[in-house]
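Co-fold these.
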Amino acid sequence: MTILGLIIVLSTGALLIYATVDFPAWADPASPASLHLSPHFIERTMEETSVPNIVTAVLADYRGYDTMYETTVIFSAGVACFILLRILLREEPGESLYRHVLTGVTIRVKEGAKIPPSADFERIDTLWAPHDLIIKTMCRLLIPFIQLFALYVIAHGHHSPGGGFQGGVILGASIILLAISHDLRTSVQRMREKVDALLSATGVFIYAGTGALCLLLGLNFLDYSALASVLHVDPVTARSHGILIVEIGVGIAVMATMIWIYSNVSSTGKYDEGL
Amino acid sequence: MGDLIEIVVAKYNYWIYITLMMIGLYAMIVKNNLVKKIVGMNIFQTAIILYYVSTGAKRGATIPILEHGHDGHAHVIHAADYINPLPHVLMLTAIVVSVATLGVALALAIRIYHRYNTLEEDEILAQIREK
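Predicted complex below.
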């Protein structure tokens, strides 16, 4: 099997390297990819959408359908992880352990029983290991700034590198950092599973809803210039605002789905301490 | 000799992506462990992302964010001054989608591990044949 695989891989690689003879040279300004569609995007984006960042304009306006379904793909991936690990793989909880935070005494609670909720006890797993105070404190200090930066990346995506996907991933990463530095229960307390699911659906809904609103206002699906009458601006600025609305939807969907996938995969759907 | 160096300089980026891609393909075909196959799949995706982004490069051009003043003064825009934005757009979404598909692949691997207590492909196949 190894030798067969090696032969397949080497012959495919040799064929592909032979094919590079016909490829345009590195950074060639006259390569076919830069000749047909991209000059139109570069030269017309400013007057058609008033967004200086061409990547954002192409992402959310010219290729709006593509991005909408990419968002749907991410949402479906989140739902798939949820169904695979949370619904089909449900295990009955046995007895649970609680640790008294001040003294470190661990108590064992029988199946089905619960202790009254109080700040003195925290739920732990059998493989519990204490977390490092320095790491916990540093992450606690860093997370608000990471989230602030993520909001900046989303909001400033029109004028600088950024946008919904990037900002959403940074927002999701801040919550995942909380889950890694503390434990998964802490992060789930901040953002419950239902909130994750609802937010990732909301993000896709904002995107598709903006498109449908354009349809209702009498223009094509995702033609944001229809929003001009609602936003009281000229059609070109309306496109810029439409892109921002859609990017916010993408950001919400990406953030919630990243957290959702992480908490499902890292705890195999049990939502315990996680990694 | 000069020609050879010119070819290498013009095309070596493609060779790097093809090498990376073949490493990923090799891992997907030959490796026995499912997690190693998933890692191979990710290396393959990364090679394709690098390839796309490199097709957007243009000599003497800058990032695809148009220069603009606050007074709304429009500069004259030449397509040769900005790199091709299209591959960046395509790969921007592909990166996030690859993370999402990685999540689904890992979830499937977890399910398989719960069912067969192993992630080695030959052991899983042997268990399936026994039934």
